Amino acid sequence: MAKTAFALNMPPEKAIKWLEQQGVSIQSRSSMNPEDAAKVITVARISNLDMMQSIKTALIDSAKNGTTYAQFKKDILSHMQAAGWLHKDENGKPEIIDPESGEVFGSPRRLENIYRTNMQAAFSAGRYQSLMQNAASRPYWQYSAVNDNRTRPAHAALSGQVYRFDDPFWNTFYPPNGYRCRCTVTALADRDIQRRNITISESTADNLTDVVKTDKSGKTYISKTYRAADGMQVSTDKGFNYNVGKVNFRPNLEDYDRNLAQQFARADISGAEFKASLQRLQKEISQADKQQSTAGKISRPSVKFAAGMLSEENQQLLQSERASVWLSEDVLTEQIKNITGQTADKYYQELPEVIHAPEMIFKGKKKTFALIRETKTGKMLATIRLGGKDREIQVQSFQNLTDHELEALQKDMQQLK
Fold first, then answer.
1. What is the per-residue pLDDT for 94?
2. Contact indicator for 123, 15 with CB cutoff of 8 Å
């Protein structure tokens, strides 16, 4: 088997970072929602935290050292043997068993699925970041399957398709699209499209639709389905209907063209991940006082969303080193708790424009600023703060503003615009 570094001559830093930032979960990938599945290393049915952490560490070491699956398996089985997890079944074959609970994890063969699934996700997420960083010069992405005798028909049907990087197609079909998927994505420039006479596809309500499917247990679920050029309907494996790179990717918007960065913020705030975060936070808050089982709980990294870009004029007015503004889940939690209407994702779709083109700006204490703009839903106030964690500009609150509240701002704060 090829090394996990995929023939690169240096450690795949972005893939390693992705693995390091992941949480861990004992749930199967197919039972999780896309937002959670994209943020964890899945180690189904192992509930021992030390063992889960050992598997995660072994994956990170493999990515850093470019080792093969065989070496990963040898290292983790050696650790399991020392920890008393490895036993022999009645046929003398090795079996992994939790010594505390007695739960049978299964044959060591399952380690290969864990290894390949999580490692492919890591490299795909790292690849996505590189593709996005070059999206301005190479905005067209081509789906590429290996096209050998092990390639699934559904993946072969997608091979060669070209979409813009921001087409909804990639929200679902950016690889991996199933267990042991080997598909990749290649970025193309305008000159490549013209020279090779490539047709650019575009997602529509006709070729990218929701369908109801049934899993092996008989349960129904909704899956996004793509109709290929030959009429074949294609779906991902259950649990892979999301873009592992996009869900985790938060670029340094300061490195991007300001208009392109503002487009990213609009898409981020109106995207499926933001909506899923609001729904999850609302549920967690409503259950905060109830006794919750720890079984199946997910350890997830903190999440932030691109909220908008200050215009060049307003960046100078605020005397800010940065232009990008971010909204954290911590702030969203406080918003949901304390401000009416904060559970509707459409409420926030006005935020990027309030930040980018406010009609009024007030300066407060401790590098806070109030940005105000009349929108479709009324007068909106975004309070931001310069500095803070990682020197980022953070949204402190976002809400409707009454005329009485505006009068109070004009009395208490210095108006800059």
1. 74
2. yes
**Contact of 44 with 296, CB cutoff 8 Å:** no
Q: Kindly tell me the burial class for residue 216, based on how many C-beta atoms sit within 10 Å of its own C-beta (0-12, 13-18, 19 or more).
A: exposed
* pTM: predicted TM-score of the whole model, two decimal places: 0.58
The predicted-structure confidence for 82-134, as pLDDT tens digits, reads as follows 877 777 777 777 777 766 666 666 666 777 777 777 787 787 777 887 888 78
Q: What is the pLDDT of residue 41?
A: 72
Whether 242 contacts 121, CB under 8 Å: no
> Which amino acid is present at 103?
E
What is the Cα–Cα distance from 59 to 74, expressed in whole angstroms? 12
For 197, left (φ over 0), alpha (ψ -120 to 50), or beta?
Answer: left
For residue 307, give every residue at least 6 positions away whose Cβ sits within 8 Å of its Cβ, in sequence order, or none.
265, 269, 325, 326, 327, 351, 352, 355, 382, 395
Tell me the pLDDT tens digit for each residue of 337-365.
876 655 565 778 899 999 999 999 999 98
- Bridge partners (DSSP) listed for residue 379: 374
CB within 8 A of 72, min separation 6: which ones? 58, 59, 62, 111, 115
Write out the two tokens for 145. Answer: 């399957």
Cα–Cα distance between 113 and 98 in angstroms, integer? 19
Q: In this structure, are strands 140-144 and 94-97 parallel, antiparallel, or unpaired? A: unpaired
Q: Provide the strand spans (E) within 276-329.
A: 304-309, 324-328
**Residue 350's closest CA among 368, 373, 316, 333?**
373
Supply 348's token pair: 């926030």
Q: Which residues of the chain have pLDDT under 50?
A: 1-11, 291-301
For 84-119, letters b (16+ CB in 10 Å) and e give: ebbeeeeeeeebbbbeeeeeebeebeebeebbbbbb
Best CA proximity match to 177, nearest among 34, 289, 332, 58: 34
The amino acid at 323: A
CA atoms within 13 A on the CB side of 128: 26
**pLDDT tens figures, 278-315:** 777 777 777 665 544 433 443 344 578 889 999 999 99
Residues β-bridged to residue 372:
360, 381
Q: Say what the pLDDT of residue 43 is.
A: 67
Residues 6+ apart with CB under 8 A from 29: 37, 42, 44, 117, 239, 240
